[in-house]
């Protein structure tokens, strides 16, 4: 029987809130079993772009990244956000190791081809090195991934953190029974975005289509849901979306997705 592995993705609004981040990292550290953390930081990057007076464009929940933008992104995601989270996990007794896709060649990707839109230095994932990650996990380390990959030719690529989480979960599902958790600032996928009590507890492809038709799902939730179903179709055992408190396994409702 395969052992269990939790892949947990933490959203940008949690990273940007010191007390929420502390609460999440404490829950994450206490979680039993093998685990990998993936963090975004899109909001933090947007704030820093603004402070620097540099424009930054999002299309369909994905960032258009030019050369100057990639430099900022690298400093914010692989530097500031990643090292801060790793240091805080160490303080919680969790032996975390900060990773990008380039480190250990853990995630191979290619620059997204230009079709209707040129996303610039945005990466599409080709594969993950499950053996490397298994060795790290086996030696008691907890990998913490930022939203960056590389193309193997020296080019770093900005890669949606939700995509990194789902590709890691898929890549490791041959070796482990993988559960993918998307933790963000809301209680789950909401029927009414202004009402935290309106959590949709179960979504399958049919309900998903209805929600899309009704316009209930928008912005960053669009790529998140695409990633969820992509993961389920490719060997991931379970996918959940909810608040950080979801990890405490209490009575609070959250969203579970199924095929
Ligand atoms: N139906 C919905 N339920 C919950 N959030 C939604 C919904 N539709 C759109 N959203 C938006 O999607 C955002 C989450 O996407 P994103 O910001 O990319 O996630 P993350 O915080 O994980 O980085 C929420 O902050 C919310 O504004
Ligand atoms: C290509 C692309 O869209 N990259 C994302 C990576 C960060 C991210 O996904 O952060 P959140 O999870 O906090 O949204 C971006 O730069 O915003």
Characteristic key phrases:
259 residues, alpha/beta, Carbamate kinase, eight-stranded mixed β-sheet, two-stranded antiparallel ribbon, 37% helix, globular, binds adenosine-5'-diphosphate, binds N-acetyl-L-glutamyl 5-phosphate
CATH architecture: 3-Layer(aba) Sandwich
Q: Which sequence of SSEs, written as H and E, runs from N to C?
A: EHHEHEEHEEEHEEEHEEHHEE
Count of the domains = 1
**What's the level 1 CATH class?**
Alpha Beta
* Strand arrangement across the biggest beta sheet: 5-8-2-1-11-13-14-12
* Low-pLDDT windows of residues: none
Strand content range: 15-25%
Task: Describe the sheet with the most strands.
Answer: 8 strands, mixed
Q: What is the structural class?
A: alpha/beta
Globally, the shape reads: globular
Mean pLDDT, as a whole number? 94
Organism: Pricia mediterranea
Protein name: Acetylglutamate kinase
EC number: 2.7.2.8
Main location: cytoplasm
């Amino acid at each position: 029987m395969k052992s269990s592995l939790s892949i947990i993705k933490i959203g940008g609004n949690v990273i940007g809130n010191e007390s929420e981040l502390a609460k999440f990292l404490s829950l994450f550290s206490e979680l039993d079993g093998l685990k990998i953390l993936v963090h975004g930081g899109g909001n933090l990057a947007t704030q820093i772009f603004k402070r620097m007076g540099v424009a930054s464009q999002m299309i369909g929940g994905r960032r258009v990244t030019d050369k100057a933008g990639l430099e900022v992104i690298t400093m914010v995601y692989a530097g500031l956000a990643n090292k801060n989270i790793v240091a805080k996990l160490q303080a919680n007794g969790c032996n975390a190791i900060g990773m990008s896709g380039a480190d250990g060649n853990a995630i191979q990707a290619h620059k997204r081809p230009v079709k209707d839109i040129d996303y610039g230095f945005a990466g599409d994932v080709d594969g993950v090195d499950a053996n490397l990650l298994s060795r790290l996990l086996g030696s008691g380390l907890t990998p913490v991934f930022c939203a960056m990959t590389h193309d193997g030719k020296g080019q770093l690529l900005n890669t949606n953190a939700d995509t990194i989480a789902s590709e890691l979960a898929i890549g490791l599902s041959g070796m482990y029974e993988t559960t993918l958790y998307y933790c963000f600032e809301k209680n789950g996928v909401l029927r009414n975005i202004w009402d935290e009590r309106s959590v949709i507890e179960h979504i399958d492809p049919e309900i998903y289509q209805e929600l899309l038709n009704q316009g209930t799902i928008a912005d960053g939730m669009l790529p998140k849901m695409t990633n969820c179903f992509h993961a389920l179709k490719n060997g991931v055992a379970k996918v959940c979306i909810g608040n950080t408190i979801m990890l405490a396994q209490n009575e609070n409702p959250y969203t579970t997705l199924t095929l």
